[in-house]
Amino acid sequence: MPNLQIMSKCPMCDFKYEKDNIRIIEKKEGLITLYMNCTQCKSSLMMVIMTGALGITSVSTMTDIVEDDIERISGNSIDYDDVLEMHRFLEECK
Ligand SMILES: [Zn+2]
Q: What residue segments make up the domains of the chain, in order of their start?
């Protein structure tokens, strides 16, 4: 599943994200917004994964949003079902 590599490492220090480092901010048909927080270099990034006729597009940006803000925005922490769902989502998009 090569597409998952998009989000598996910190772009700044190559720290490999654990599921605790990843939060789902928004999930919609064909679109997932993720927030990743690196425990090693403390950088945060937002990633939007979109699917369409051309396949998967992902856009990531460094962000100043801290995890507390995310709690307020979404109220949801990622759980195992979300991870499974994300895998399925990416599988379906191939
Ligand atoms: Zn990092």
A: 2-92
